[in-house]
Design brief:
Strand content: 15-25%
Low-confidence stretches: 1-16, 172-181
Number of helices: 8
Mean pLDDT: 75
Helix content: 40-55%
Number of strands: 9
Structural class: alpha+beta
Number of domains: 2
Length: 290
């Protein structure tokens, strides 16, 4: 199906160059470099977080520019174009979530320190305003996409789940390294699905030629994650196969990093022998059974 997308839709979204708010924010972060009233180690931590948030905002701006390019003017969108727009918006929201976590951590740290540093407080306020403004722009964009009958239903579900997860977090207990994100959890989270080839295709996990949708595009499968089961690779090393006669591992996992348990010429389970090796090529496991 093709979509006809008449736009002057997104010019409001981003003008070229930096906005006044962005210039103020950049100058404010730069001004902190000369501050000596705070402990230098603490100040370096603030500056690192500020710069990471700003880098994320810059990346968001680049992705927004890509969306604008795809949709400006009198444009005819293929399904692949719509999917790409969904993926770009999802990537933007993930960066926004990361920024909100970092900003919440900074606010919490500043409150607990009882710091009276006006420069720090001003910078955090500017960052908060910039993120809030971007939230409004993205909400407006989603509304206009829906009004143009662009299918973003799966995207909306994913975003709602992300917002709910963020709202449930208690930032009073955020550890110092959560300024970057919870690397440990992220590194040890994987996703798997075991199903027939027909069902995998119907769910959008496999392409028509039988290839995994993640090949060449990791962001492409994020909208399909609800079809997978999430697992901790440190704890789960065996996947039941329920005595099927034939199987095919679709994703890439090195030989020798796993083995099959067999019984009466049927596949009972897949056992991961070396989690580090097994998951190093892909954090997704797709198995087709028959």
């Amino acid at each position: 199906m093709k979509h006809y997308f008449l736009l002057l839709l997104i010019p409001f979204f981003f003008a070229c160059g930096e906005s006044e708010e962005e210039i103020r924010l950049r100058n404010q972060v730069d001004s902190l470099m000369s501050i000596t009233s705070e402990d230098q180690t603490t100040m370096n931590e603030y500056l690192k977080a500020f710069n990471e948030i700003q880098m994320n905002l810059n990346e968001i701006k680049e992705k927004e520019s890509i969306i604008t390019t795809k949709t400006v003017g009198d444009v005819e969108l293929e399904d692949t174009d719509v999917e790409a727009i969904n993926n770009d918006i999802l990537a933007i929201y993930e960066l926004m979530q990361e920024n909100k976590k970092k900003l919440a951590y900074l606010r919490n740290r500043l409150d607990k320190s009882n710091s009276q540093n006006k420069e720090l407080k001003t910078t955090i306020k500017l960052l908060n305003n910039s993120i809030a403004e971007k939230d409004i722009q993205l909400s407006d964009l989603r509304t206009q996409l829906e009004q143009k009958n662009i299918d973003i239903s799966e995207l909306n579900v994913k975003i709602e789940e992300m917002d709910k997860s963020l709202a449930e977090m208690s930032f009073d207990n955020v550890q110092k390294d959560s300024v970057i994100t919870d690397q440990d959890t992220k590194l040890n989270t994987a996703y798997y699905i075991i199903d027939t080839k027909k069902n995998l295709k119907d769910k959008g996990i496999l392409e028509s030629d039988g290839g995994f949708i993640g090949i060449g595009s990791n962001t492409k499968i994020k909208l399909k994650e609800k079809e997978f089961t999430e697992t901790d690779i440190r704890e789960v090393t065996e996947f039941p196969l329920n005595n099927v006669k034939k199987i095919q591992i679709i994703t890439d996992h090195p030989e020798g990093s796993y083995k099959f348990e067999m019984e009466d010429d049927k596949y009972v389970s897949l056992k991961v022998l070396s989690p580090e090796d097994f998951w190093k090529m892909s954090k997704y496991l797709v198995i087709s059974v028959k």
